[in-house]
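dumping this here so i dont lose it
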């Protein structure tokens, strides 16, 4: 059986450790034959990501802070050296812990802008930096969460940032469609990642979703990764501007 991403080159932003969704996606992409380019932010993560890249057989590892235009310019040049890009995975989000713990109305101006910059605007900036390299079309994928459309306790400023991210997906999909570039988001259920630890009472959220979801269990990172493979492959060629839920069905539930 042929590999679904054979002959394709994928850029994956946001690998931080073996528990990150970006790492699960990188594993699945590699399994399906993709050539990988990974990024890391700052010296603190450099060695970890380089070691993971070696395990995955990644072709290149490049430093990229998505809040810095000079890093994005360097990312473009580095990816150009690797040839055509076929897939881009944006798995990046950040908000100050204090802005996740305090009431939303008490979000600081600086904290609000930071969450928007890193979690939402970065998708626009990454698309601008990479779209010119997707000369044969391709797929851009980002990660979102149910808090973009529903109020979830303690998700606060990150929920608003994810709402902006999902709107950005739609506008980018409209703009890039004529270049045969598809842009979609995956809304994953709660997963025990390093980022999730920054959400107050995350364990309660995780348990509640597992209890109420139709599958009566939590989301498996491998399910999210396989959905990303679908979107990056020719199987997903007719899907753009959408949010695909991979959350054991929790998003359909009411009271």
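and the seq i came up w/
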């Amino acid at each position: 059986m042929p590999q679904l991403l054979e002959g394709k080159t994928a850029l994956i932003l946001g690998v931080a450790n073996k528990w990150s969704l970006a790492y699960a996606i990188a594993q699945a992409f590699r399994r399906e034959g993709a050539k990988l380019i990974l990024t890391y932010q700052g010296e603190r993560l450099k060695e970890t990501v380089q070691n993971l890249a070696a395990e995955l057989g990644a072709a290149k590892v490049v430093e990229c802070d998505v809040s810095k235009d000079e890093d994005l310019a360097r990312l473009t040049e580095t990816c150009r050296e690797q040839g055509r890009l076929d897939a881009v995975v944006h798995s990046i989000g950040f908000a100050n812990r204090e802005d996740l713990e305090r009431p939303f109305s008490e979000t600081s101006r600086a904290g609000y802008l930071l969450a928007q910059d890193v979690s939402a605007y970065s998708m626009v900036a990454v698309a601008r930096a990479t779209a010119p390299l997707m000369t044969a079309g391709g797929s851009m994928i980002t990660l979102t969460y149910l808090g973009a459309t529903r109020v979830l306790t303690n998700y606060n400023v990150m929920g608003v940032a994810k709402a902006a991210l999902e709107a950005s997906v739609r506008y980018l999909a409209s703009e890039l469609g004529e270049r045969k570039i598809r842009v979609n988001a995956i809304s994953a259920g709660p997963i025990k990642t390093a980022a999730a630890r920054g959400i107050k009472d995350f364990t309660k959220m995780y348990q509640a979703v597992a209890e109420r979801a139709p599958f009566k269990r939590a989301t498996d990172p491998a399910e999210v990764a396989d959905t990303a493979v679908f979107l990056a492959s020719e199987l997903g060629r007719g899907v753009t501007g959408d949010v695909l839920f991979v959350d054991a069905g929790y998003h359909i539930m009411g009271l």
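The longest strand covers residues 181-188.
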